[in-house]
Amino acid sequence: MNRPTVSTDEPSGGAAGAPSTETYCISCGESISADAEICPHCGVSQRRLPESGGPGRTADEKYCTNCGSVVNRDAELCPECGAEQTIGAGGEVDKLAAALIALFLGGLGIHKFYLGDNKMGVLYLCFFWTGIPAVLGIIEGIIYLTKSDEEFQRRYVKR
């Protein structure tokens, strides 16, 4: 990822008259010192890709949802195109899918795994033979369908 640098003639604590090199934060786009490891404006790490590494990303980075540039995982805006980045592990969980899974496979706790609640999923699996998880699954499926999308995401999806 090529990041533009800006040379200024103002000294920055170094030798008088020596130009200082600045760059832009990979998250907020503010001008910062080229050797800064953390942006003083937003606090996001400025770890850079190796120059000879070629295309790709590390565990702390993701691709921009608009232009495909490599950006910091915590970035809210792409420094290349300015597009807002989605934050989260994998987006939203589909409410209808969760409700249908709960209605038809709720006795096995599959809907709990789908929602990210693995402990409850295992508990449902352990007691599926009693029939109680099946009844609870039907009730939960109906409840999921009655909630608004925002309330469903906030209340039932584990992140």
TrEMBL record:
Instruction: Name any GO cellular component annotation.
Output: membrane
Q: Which InterPro entries match?
A: DZR (IPR025874), TM2 (IPR007829)
Looking up Pfam families in the UniProt record yields:
DZR (PF12773), TM2 (PF05154)
Keyword match Membrane = yes
Q: Identify the keywords attached in UniProt to this record, alphabetized.
A: Membrane, Transmembrane, Transmembrane helix
- Outline the extent of the DZANK-type domain: 25-82
Span-the-membrane segments of this chain are 96-115, 121-145
Q: What is this protein called?
A: TM2 domain-containing protein
